[in-house]
Amino acid sequence: MSDEPEPTTEQDRSADSCVFCKIVEGAAEATRVYEDEHLLAFMDTNPVTPGHLLVVPKKHAAFLRYLPEPHGAGLFVVGQRLATALVDSGLRCEGVNFFLADGVAAGQEVFHVHLHVFPRFADDGFRLDANWNEASRSDLEDAAEKVRVGLSPEHRADAPDEE
Q1: pTM of the model
Q2: What is the CATH T-level fold of the domain 9-120, as seen in this structure?
Q3: In what order do the strands lie in the sheet with 95-99?
Q4: How many CA atoms lie within 13 A of 137 on its CB side?
Q5: What is the per-residue pLDDT for 163?
Q6: Annotated catalytic, 60?
Q7: Of the residues 38, 60, 114, 155, which is catalytic?
Q8: Distance of CA 156 to CAs 5, 122, 135, Å?
Q9: Domain map (residue ranges) of the chain
């Protein structure tokens, strides 16, 4: 029995015309930087800054919920390696951002999970405009409880310690 969730029609349909799947297969051009058994990293063709990379799982997953946890963790392991490489690359890099949009409301445009890793520097023009208002403790607790419900008991921060 597989640990992976069953793909849905939504998941299957998006795999058919996925540009990242075509890159993984070698059917579409990309400037590859990193590759292992499960992940591929290549240069973004519309970079925020020079050195902007994308890390993708080789197996199609339209959304994080379809991506096996070890592959999701792997995105960030590879991202960390790439961030170190960017800092040491000689490219202008005073910091590094990771960005992952999961779903239309989050700004996802290519429906294959991907992590953006890009160098940052003063006045690079990149902005995240948001309404960063402080929340009340009760609002934080209410939201946290709703999130905990979706976690398995052993991963809930409020789960009692077993002895």
Answers
A1: 0.84
A2: HIT family, subunit A (3.30.428)
A3: 32-35, 39-43, 53-57, 115-120, 95-99
A4: 0
A5: 47
A6: no
A7: 114
A8: 21, 39, 21
A9: 9-120
